[in-house]
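User: Okay, second chain of the day. Same drill as before: sequence in, structure tokens out.
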Amino acid sequence: MTTKSTNSGTAKRISSVPLDDILATVRRLIPSVHPEPHGFSFRGRLGTTHLHVQPVDHRTKDDSRITDVVTITTDLTDFPIPSETPEVNLAALNMNAVMSALMLVRRGKTAVLSSRLSAFEGDDEAWNLYTPMLAFAAVFQSEVFVQTVRRADPSWEEDDDTEVLPESNAASPWDAGDFDLAQDFLDRIGVLANGDATGLTAEFPWDPGATSQIERFFGRDPGGRTSLLRVTTTERHPALGNGLLCRLVLPVSYPTDHLLARAACRLNLLEAVVIDAPPFLGAWTVDPASKSPAFVAFWPNLMYRPGVVANLTTWMLARSERAKRWTEVDTGLCALAREGEGEAVREPGSMLG
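Assistant: Same drill. Structure tokens below.
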């Protein structure tokens, strides 16, 4: 989007982020929103949510320019995280992530829900998706977290069929056309993928030359590891009902379940502070089947947009490539892979305040 002056009630500045549009969308559902310099905030059931736009001037490897980083954070001041094995508890709670990750920041003392989006100069069309996406994440991330936790509690007595959002009990609107569009993109770049009317499965190369692990069933060398992406409409979210579930599983392991959970938490912290990366709308957690780190995100029916599956597929391919680099160079992840060496790993520099 071309740069423009943005005035949200407290200050003017030049930005590529249509902050006034996002604020107007949020105010349709949250009347008591407080404008702040470079963003806004409002109080929810568990804590205060802040949307903040941080100006940056970052050139990517392909010479694109990132002008701003948008972060959405909710401080869960009234939600206790058990002090014993907190990373295991965080990973478990993040298994039902929607568009934010639960993490501990400020030296592990504060529970925060967090999302991030990097804004590219001239990316006008993207804001047709990003504006409602960011508004939804801001308005609902805290409430969805509350509903998810309560519905997972056996003592919670609310009827499972109660709609948290409009259309939550309707059939998922994503269909074969959405998945075909994503598969066409993957076919063009040589990624093995299969889609049907209910979802898409794809394998991204993790090691150079890798194509598919199915080669093992035919007695052939697959040429290395692949990460596995599944996008499906057949799994219902415990709080939001029907929609689109996205899960990316990495082909890496850690010596113990505790170290695996710590690795997932580390990946969330890295995602929250990076600038040149796909939108961080979801969470790293632990895939219970493979015992590997997995990124999950859920788009409820209310957030249906044509082309979203293709967007998610592109983001997950980039996320897989970045996660591989992190497992090779990040000191925290490398220490965890070496049976927990360097337990006191310094928290990465944070935009979370």
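The chain is about 30% helix and 25% strand.

User: Thanks, on to the next one.
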